[in-house]
Amino acid sequence: MQYRHEVKVLTKLEEAKANLEAPELGTESVRTAKMKIVEGLKLRQNVEYVVESSGVGENNVLRSLGGKMALYLMDFKSENTSKKYFAGFNRWKSFINEHGFSDLPAEPVHVALYLTFLIDKHSSPSVLQSAIYSIKWAHELNGYIDPTSNSFKTLLLESCKNWNGKLVVKKDPVDNIMLRELCSIYQDSSDLLVIRDLTMILIAYAVLSKYTPRDDFRALGFDTGFHIDQVHEVRHGRSI
């Protein structure tokens, strides 16, 4: 019986995914997809259970609001965000169900094992972050305790940044030595485009720094008549 129920839920999730990935995502397709997600996440079932447990009987007018409440809960995130989180939750569900455990509600240690699995697959920190948000989203919708709010998640995410994060290589700042070397490379060039580009580079550098490129202009083989006072004028926003 439990197996048939899990197959039914998975079928609803797959149907919702198909509706969300339709080429022309109209209002009706979005509504249909939301209905499938509500059923796939057992959201309506859980909302009705909570309403009934609060003492609201079948004949009470409040009982009819349970179904609408489930749909409105789906709208607390934008359509694109819900689509992204739903896909992430679907991946988590397939993983944990394959090993015979519950996806909703989930045990924190099982989520931590899933994150470990992703790190082991060389997934990037952004993939882990997406998985965490997706699982958190599904649990918040159903009123369950968030299984990602523990130290395991935080530490594994930091570990992923160390293992699978991109190494940031900072570039050396441009200085006048680099500019002199650049000018020396093209000092014999007669190409006006090259001279123009070098001139623009030197002027821009002079305006943004305290360096005056007069000597480097002369290294190019021409005299611009570019004086120190003119550099100061441009640096202070005045025309020359």
Using brief descriptors, characterize the structure shown:
240 residues, mainly alpha, DNA polymerase, domain 1, 66% helix
As for the CATH topology of the domain at 78-169, it is: DNA polymerase, domain 1
- Overall shape: it is elongated
Measure the end-to-end span: 85 Å
How much of the polypeptide forms β-strand, as a percent range?
A: under 5%
Indicate the mean pLDDT: 77
Give the helix level as a range of percent.
Answer: 55-70%
Summarize the biggest pleated sheet: none
Number of helices: 12
User: What gyration radius follows from the Cα positions, in whole Å?
Assistant: 31 Å
Give the total of beta strands.
0
**What is the architecture of the domain at 78-169 at the second tier of CATH?**
Orthogonal Bundle
CATH H-tier superfamily of the domain at 78-169: Tyrosine recombinase, N-terminal domain
Classification by helices and strands: mainly alpha
How would you describe this structure to a colleague?
- By secondary structure, this protein is mostly helical.
- Among the domains are: 78-169, Tyrosine recombinase, N-terminal domain (DNA polymerase, domain 1); 176-235, no CATH class.
- Helices cover 66% and strands 0% of the residues.
- It has 12 helices and no strands.
- The protein has helices at 2-20, 27-40, 43-53, 65-73, 79-98, 108-120, 125-141, 151-164, 176-185, 192-208, 214-219, 228-235.
- Helix 1 (2-20) packs antiparallel against helix 5 and helix 3 (43-53) crosses helix 4 (65-73).
- The longest helix is centred in the middle third of the chain and has 20 residues, at 79-98.
- The radius of gyration is 31 Å and the shape is elongated.
- The termini are far apart.
- 23% of the residues are buried.
